[in-house]
Amino acid sequence: MKRLLALFLLLLSLALNAESIASDPLVEARLKSLSQELRCLVCQNQTLADSTAPLAEDLRREIRELIAKGMTDEEITNYLVARYGDFVRYRPPFKSQTALLWLGPTVMLIIGFVVLWVTLRRRNKTLPNDYEVADEI
């Protein structure tokens, strides 16, 4: 019975502490701003704010704690980048490690247009010959 009471009091104190941090509107505004710029590491195509994954909840809780410690948004972002890499940013910076990420879609689009152009040119060169053969029959 004493263990159950101790466990209940521990859980109650944790819940009250979490509620006191979450009830501060400035902390929540900063958390929302930061979580819009950070990627969920599990979902990978959602921001931290949009994700309901348990890891996203843990990261939001950690960000709240870092805000409570007095860290700036840039310090928090740098901390998370140092821990998880540039992948944690929803919009990673352009540098040598992320160049393929930024330039890859454009390069693939250009390659697709070149292949389409070459294919159409080849088809146009062979098309008149096909019509002449069809006319003779």
Structure description:
The structure is a single chain. This protein has 137 residues and is mostly helical. The protein has two domains: 1-93, Helicase, Ruva Protein, domain 3; 96-137. It has five helices and no strands. The model has no long low-confidence stretch (mean pLDDT 81).
Q: How many structural domains are formed by the residues?
A: 2
Q: How does the major sheet shape up?
A: none
Rg for CA atoms: 28 Å
Strand tally is: 0
| Gap from first CA to last CA | 100 Å
Percent in strands: under 5%
Order of helices and strands: HHHHH
Classify the helix fraction into a percent range: over 70%
What is the CATH top level name of the largest domain? Mainly Alpha
- Low-confidence runs: none
The CATH superfamily of the largest domain turns out to be Cytochrome C biogenesis protein
Features:
about 140 residues, elongated
At a glance:
The protein is 72% helix and 0% strand. It is mainly alpha-helical and 137 residues long.
Write the layout of secondary structure elements.
Elements: H1 2-22, H2 25-37, H3 54-68, H4 73-84, H5 99-136
